[in-house]
Amino acid sequence: MSLIDISGNLLFVAFVAYLVATLLIGGSIKSAKPDGAAGRATKWGQLAIIVTIIGFLAHLGYFITRWIYSGQVPVSNMFEFTTAFGMFLIGAFIYMYFMYRVTALGLVALPIALIIIGWAAMFPREVTPLVPSLQSHWLTIHVITAAIGQSILAISAVAGLIYLLKVIDAKKKGKERFWLEAVLYFLVIIVGNIAASVAFNVVGYEDRYSYINKDEIELQIIYNHPPIFGMNESTAITEGAMEPLIEMPAFIHAQKLNIVVWSLLVGTILYVLIRLIARKRIIELLNPLVQKVNLQLFDEIGYRSVLIGFPIFSLGALVFAMIWAQEAWGRFWGWDPKEVWALITWLFYAAYLHLRLSKGWEGKKSAWLALIGFGIIIFNLVVVNLVIAGLHSYA
Amino acid sequence: MEKIVCACGHENPLGTKICSNCGRPLTEEGKSQKVLDMKYDGSAIRSKTHNKSFVDKVWNFFSSVKVGVALIIILLVVASIGTIFPQEFFVAAGTEAGKALYYETNYGSLGTLYYNLGLSDLYSTWWFQVLVGMLGVSIIVASIDRGIPLHKSLTKQRVKRHESFMRRQRIIAEGAVTEGDPSKTLYSVEEKLKKMNYKVRHDGSALLAEKGRFSRYGPYINHVGLIIFLLGVMLHQLPGMHVDESMWIRDGETRAIPGMDGYFLESKKFILETHDNDPTTAQIQQGVAVIAKNYQTDVVLYKQSDDALPGETNNLEVVKEYSIRVNHPLEHDGYSLYQMDYRLNELKEMTFSLTNKETGTVLGNITIDLRNPKSEYVIDENTKVELMEYYPDYTGFNDEGKPQTATPNPNNPAFIFNMITPEKPKGEISFVAIQQTVEGSGASENTYKMAFTGVDTINMSGLTIRMDKTIPLLIVGGFIFLLGLAIGSYWNHRRVWIEQLADGQIRLAAHTNKNWFGIKKEIDALTEYAHLPQYVDQLVDEKEKEKKDE
Question: What are the residue boundaries of the Cytochrome c assembly protein domain, all occurrences included (chain A) (predicted)?
Answer without folding.
Answer: 87-392
